[in-house]
Write a structure and sequence with these properties.
heterodimer; A: mainly beta; 7-stranded mixed beta sheet; 4-stranded antiparallel beta sheet; 11 strands; 0% helix; globular; B: mainly beta; 5-stranded antiparallel beta sheet
Amino acid sequence: SQTIHQWPATLVQPVGSPLSLECTVEGTSNPNLYWYRQAAGRGLQLLFYSVGIGQISSEVPQNLSASRPQDRQFILSSKKLLLSDSGFYLCAWTRGERTGELFFGEGSRLTVL
Amino acid sequence: GENVEQHPSTLSVQEGDSAVIKCTYSDSASNYFPWYKQELGKGPQLIIDIRSNVGEKKDQRIAVTLNKTAKHFSLHITETQPEDSAVYFCAASNDKIIFGKGTRLHILP
């Protein structure tokens, strides 16, 4: 069966510090991978998606970047965090089609102080 | 691009009664409409979905209806139970999945 792991679960970081959130998917190959951010009252905002190794599409201009160094690994990064980067970050994957079921990880709660 | 509006933002329902959450979408090309349930501290999980060639779909106590002409779709939960308390998200997709802002459902004892 397929599983998705996301870590760390909770992170408190000072403004200006770097960020790295990691997500891995097991039990499938060549998944489409996604990073969403969930802020209070704003639903689920798509940040990045990837259809293959090294292929990253950005949905919104921001202080964050994403990388996919391996088929089932997706990393969300920042060189210098802003207060506005605080939120609940969710990694997700789908099978080949873009409009299939999204399988979400458990999320990473980031607080920037 | 697609825009999804979801109402209400908060809903309180007596246990055993029905709950209805409504969404509208803007892109007439959208053809896939999933609903996700998110429990506290967890990632959302798909509970039901409908494609544009179908007007209604039911799975036990959960049903979804789709009106393509009006570009709106709804989630219906009957005989609500305490474990139905959660945040529910609708979404619409043609290429990318765009979510509504969510509805926090409280089931009152």
